[in-house]
Recover the amino acids of this structure.
């Protein structure tokens, strides 16, 4: 009689508490040893972190939050400048470039890689996806490939970067999450950081459209509903 071996807990996940990283957390939960949330001073940090804590408790996965307040003080981005600075529109609109936080993923991946090596873990997971490519340079395949190379060569054990959603759409991710029973009602995306999603900023627009395209009921409460 064959005995089934349990997957090795060998991964750190960069986990915001948003829709994409929550789906990846559930998909990789058998291998995730640590989920790390970074607070870099964004409008929505507190609400995202609360969602991250909720899901990690549910899955019994260790969760840590790391303060990157220096980014909020020294970097330029509408994401760090208050709710009123967030533009309305779609991700492919030129005005949405103001939401870019310079080299955010590079900084977070560097820290996550250090955490992985410190704990004897071999992988770092990130939930960037195809819809991010239009305006976020640090979500594109070229960046992911370069960071994977840097991490492998810059660590003794060759920590690798895994980004399984790089070529997927957000609708693809919603479908995957729905199939796993992810409670999307306990995820947060809105760049304005209000009690409810504003429904008008780029990430709200993308979120609502993803549920529609995936033919999955959207549990999000938007302002004005």
């Amino acid at each position: 009689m064959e005995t089934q071996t349990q997957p090795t807990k060998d991964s750190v996940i960069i986990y915001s508490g948003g829709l994409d990283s929550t789906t990846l957390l559930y998909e990789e939960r058998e291998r995730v040893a640590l989920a790390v949330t970074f607070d870099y001073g964004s409008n929505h940090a507190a609400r995202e972190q609360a969602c991250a804590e909720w899901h990690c408790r549910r899955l019994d996965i260790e969760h840590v939050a790391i303060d990157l307040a220096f980014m909020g003080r020294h970097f330029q981005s509408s994401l760090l400048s208050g709710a009123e600075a967030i533009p309305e529109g779609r991700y492919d609109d030129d005005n949405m470039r103001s939401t870019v936080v310079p080299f955010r993923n590079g900084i977070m991946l560097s820290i996550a890689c250090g955490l992985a090596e410190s704990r004897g873990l071999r992988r770092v997971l990130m939930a960037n996806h195809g819809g991010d490519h239009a305006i976020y340079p640090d979500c594109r395949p070229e960046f992911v490939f370069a960071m994977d190379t840097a991490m492998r060569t810059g660590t003794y054990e060759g920590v690798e970067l895994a980004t399984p959603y790089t070529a997927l759409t957000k609708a693809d991710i919603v479908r995957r999450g729905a199939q796993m029973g992810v409670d999307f009602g306990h995820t947060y995306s809105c760049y304005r950081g209000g009690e409810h999603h504003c429904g008008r900023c780029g990430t709200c627009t993308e979120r609502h459209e993803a549920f529609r395209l995936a033919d999955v009921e959207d549990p999000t409460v938007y302002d004005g509903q």
Q: What stands out?
A: The chain has seven helices and five strands. The helical segments are 19-27, 45-59, 69-74, 104-118, 141-153, 170-180, 202-214. Residues 78 and 99 are 5 Å apart (CA to CA).
